[in-house]
Amino acid sequence: MHPLIAVPATCALIYRAYSHRSLTPLGILAATLTATIHALHPWSLPFLLLCVFFLGGTRVTKIKHAEKARLTLGAAGGSGDAGPRSAVQVLANSAVASMLIGVHTRSLGQGWESYGAMKTRRGDCWSRGQDLLVVGIVANYAAVAADTFSSELGILSRTSPRLITSPTLRTVPPGTNGGVTLTGLLAGLLGAFTIALTSAVFLPFCATTDSPTAGWSLVDRATFIVAVTLWGGLGSLIDSFLGGWLQASVIDVRSGKVVEGDNGAKVLVSEDGKWWRKRAEVRSRVGKGEGKDSKVDRPVQDQYTEREPSRKVVSGLGLLDNNAVNFLMALIMSVAGMAVAGWWWNVPLESVLDGL
Predict the structure, then answer these.
(1) What is the pLDDT of residues 89-115, one digit of tens each?
(2) How many CA atoms lie within 13 A of 243 on its CB side?
């Protein structure tokens, strides 16, 4: 981007995040670094994709915000209000794209390349069947936008979510990791479409008049929009699968609502809810008893009565938190998108490293 556009645009984006309290202070710092990397790219597209994702994501987050907050609980015990996004959340969605953009920025301007019958300076336009990094960047934002739209709007579905990792697709409470609804799937496609349309409008496609074999016709661009939209929707489904499999879903036993971790972190759960045994052991030791061998009477209602845990894990292995799942999904969809495009265009995937 031209500095005269990039600097004020970056400042405006950061100011909006600050004024609307969309990000934490460290989140604003991470967003500033991310926006700078995007703005340094010669094309305007990377920065515009970041803007569309950020503005679209914050907008759907605020849709029926109060209603969504009542559907889940926060880790501290209040409503499930997500609050400002943290630096980790910012990087989970944009780190992969930032790395690809950095590599692509370096690769541009390194001499002249032949695109079919024409010869153009690398970076002047994007030829069909060339430069897989562009596919990876667009695929990243299509997937994370679809996931954000799906999560924020799918929870409002009037039908119960079904767990994608369950063989029987059992119903689960709203907000459960891996829970999918038709509303969420359609919302995910809408999010991906915003990225696909932005890419189709602002990507510098090579024209067919310059190169009939490497240029992009209107049909090619329409196909590109459909492909990116579907790819983003697939990313949302993969994120649901990864979340349902690798991320623990915790519910509050009394209310039956899902407990969400602060800024996408894991939710703490007591490993043993029958804590009266420990109390009994401590009491026996104080009374010079024999620890576990002592016998303790258990009145029906006293402080030593057996109590059930207030939270329990209902699905997922608990290996990753939400931020790690989002990053893993973005990485998979970006690399897989480049691999599929490379297979379709007969371009080796390792060509993305040519600019290093």
Answers:
(1) 999 999 999 999 999 999 886 544 443
(2) 28
